[in-house]
Amino acid sequence: MKQKRPKYMQIIDAAVIVIAENGYHQAQVSKIAKQAGVADGTIYLYFKNKEDILISLFKVKMGQFIEQMNEEMKTKHSATEKLALFIRKHFELLSGDRHLAIVTQLELRQSHRELRLKINEILKGYLTILEDIITEGIEAGEFKSTLDVRLAKQMIFGTVDETVTTWVMNDQKYDLPQLADSIHELLIHGFSHGNKEEK
Amino acid sequence: MKQKRPKYMQIIDAAVIVIAENGYHQAQVSKIAKQAGVADGTIYLYFKNKEDILISLFKVKMGQFIEQMNEEMKTKHSATEKLALFIRKHFELLSGDRHLAIVTQLELRQSHRELRLKINEILKGYLTILEDIITEGIEAGEFKSTLDVRLAKQMIFGTVDETVTTWVMNDQKYDLPQLADSIHELLIHGFSHGNKEEK
Amino acid sequence: MKQKRPKYMQIIDAAVIVIAENGYHQAQVSKIAKQAGVADGTIYLYFKNKEDILISLFKVKMGQFIEQMNEEMKTKHSATEKLALFIRKHFELLSGDRHLAIVTQLELRQSHRELRLKINEILKGYLTILEDIITEGIEAGEFKSTLDVRLAKQMIFGTVDETVTTWVMNDQKYDLPQLADSIHELLIHGFSHGNKEEK
Amino acid sequence: MKQKRPKYMQIIDAAVIVIAENGYHQAQVSKIAKQAGVADGTIYLYFKNKEDILISLFKVKMGQFIEQMNEEMKTKHSATEKLALFIRKHFELLSGDRHLAIVTQLELRQSHRELRLKINEILKGYLTILEDIITEGIEAGEFKSTLDVRLAKQMIFGTVDETVTTWVMNDQKYDLPQLADSIHELLIHGFSHGNKEEK
DNA sequence: GATGAATGAGTTTTCATTCAT
DNA sequence: AATGAATGAAAACTCATTCAT
Predict the structure, then answer these.
(1) Chain C residues with CB inside 8 Å of D195's CB?
(2) Closest chain D residue to C187 measured between Cα atoms?
(3) pLDDT confidence of A163, banded at 50, 70, 90?
(4) pLDDT digits over A62-90, tens only?
(5) In principle, which of B20, B32, C116, D42 could form an S-S bond with B99, CB 3.0–4.6 Å?
(6) Residue spans per domain, chain A
């Protein structure tokens, strides 16, 4: 497996740093090579082309992300708790790596349409976790039976993603994970007061 | 004279079409000029540079967007209704112009960081509408008094934006506005059943 | 005759100012038109093209130059005196019009080879004055009979031209005409002491 | 490998030829690259930009010029002889490289003001040689004690420069170095007969 | 005569990728 | 495996000139 060769990860980590610090369009292969401490040509022994670095970067980081998420998920037994964990964990993982947060929220979105489609494919694996939580919540009677899984998924992901992006754009100057509970509460109970009878 | 519309709008409309059909990075000035039916140089009589076309495009379209939104907003008198209108209108406006939807949801996001910051400035005017609705809802007692305006705003915008992007990525093959009511319901009451006592 | 139409001179004077203040390569036709207070298109009613403005500019100014030079030349009756007058007059005329000095010494030299050849043609009329002075000086026995007219001409013109250029490059901050006598003395008697026998 | 010379000199030599044969404004980087037998991009491994090629060209050639000049200067022991050498050598060096002569006398003068200022800086090193000769001549009593060093410098350089330029404009069709002695004689003794008493 | 909106040709530079060593 | 010198394709923008009014 490629991933075991040390230079592979060395280059990916270099890419994260270079992209975060210089921006997507200023992240030339030569800069990444220099940051990784290898020659330009060496990059191409480990990656097919530049796009492959970016996809691999996303794949590797997302893989670690999913792994950690799944690991902790085992400790929770209700969909409500799992959702709370998902949100908090999502925030913790991104606020724990400032470079990565910049790369995923701002820089990688500047990539070509084609690359973004591939990134979306990888993202699906992550969104599956959400789907499972929602489905479980419906089946367990925690969530309303009429809940549209796809919409709920877009709502959760759209909300956390927008929240992280706003945080990154504001130079990451406030604490992200502490927003998790409020967001969870809003997703579960909405903006209104508790008694639906008001309506 | 072929066109009575001033060339300014002619070029902006051409840019929307060219970007939607060719992608951001394949939208050369010469292509836009050709689509607009003017010479390359003419572009520069109306726009400072290529970036200026894109910013102007966003400004003009967003301006029309805000105007229409505010116009209809007058007919609604509760925050709940206004929110429902906002969501539906947002969907209607974007599903009513397929090219523009592709441009705003996919292509313009590939722009340089600097350009995206300018776009965000323009977007703030739009998000202000949301803020006003939320504040009004809290003051009128429709929304819970503990509602964090910023979070609620991110939640609404994150949700509708993610929903539209997913729709565009799926080649706009289903009806977007009909999702509005479900989303509104979820935002107001959350995923759970009505009785908070369960919790 | 074109030259009598007021706009012709208006445009030429505008060109001198614009070129002196902006440099040759930043002296666009539109800038000259604006400075002259006419529309861009109007330029082309009086001049064939941009190059024609520059040639005409040089022709007109050089014509005035030659006229004034010849006028005063009548008052001198020895070649030595005429040469002294030539040098002083050359300096006076150029130090009397700071814009023109910049244009002739620095900016017009940046023009295309072709234009410079045309300028050289016009310059010949001016250099003829020099030739006449030298020939007269030889015939009158004031200058050595072995004097090579062509070389002497190049020496005089090369010296005064280099002197003016240096003065312009030093921002015209010292008095140019007061150098005339020293230069004249050097041209007539050279660097050495008076007694040729030393050699 | 065709050439053993480092590409740096290869490109500079190519630039001299291309500029001489096509003129300053028709000397595109691609033409220079082709003449040098390298790819366009290779130019930018050795030079920052096009202007850098031109400055480097002038620096290198002027450096060689100064070096040769200084070398031979050692063999002469009077200022008069040194001046004679300077003039002859200046003519020899330029008439020995027809392309270079065209470039320095005609083409490089069309460059932007900014570039010309840089060229002038480099030229100062050359003019220093002249200054030293003049100062030495005054101190040794060869030249008159009232001689203004700056004026004398402008006179010498103005004269030789104008002479070379005229020669280039006349398609280099006569022998330049053979003019050296006459010019030297004129600079030392002037246009007049030897006996200053005439005056 | 006068206007000025419109035209469109033309060139430097960057950077992902290759391949001889 | 590793290197890094060399490659070459690709696009925004300026400005002299025209011509319909």
Answers:
(1) 194, 196
(2) D190
(3) very high
(4) 999 999 999 999 999 999 999 999 999 99
(5) B20
(6) 1-47, 51-198
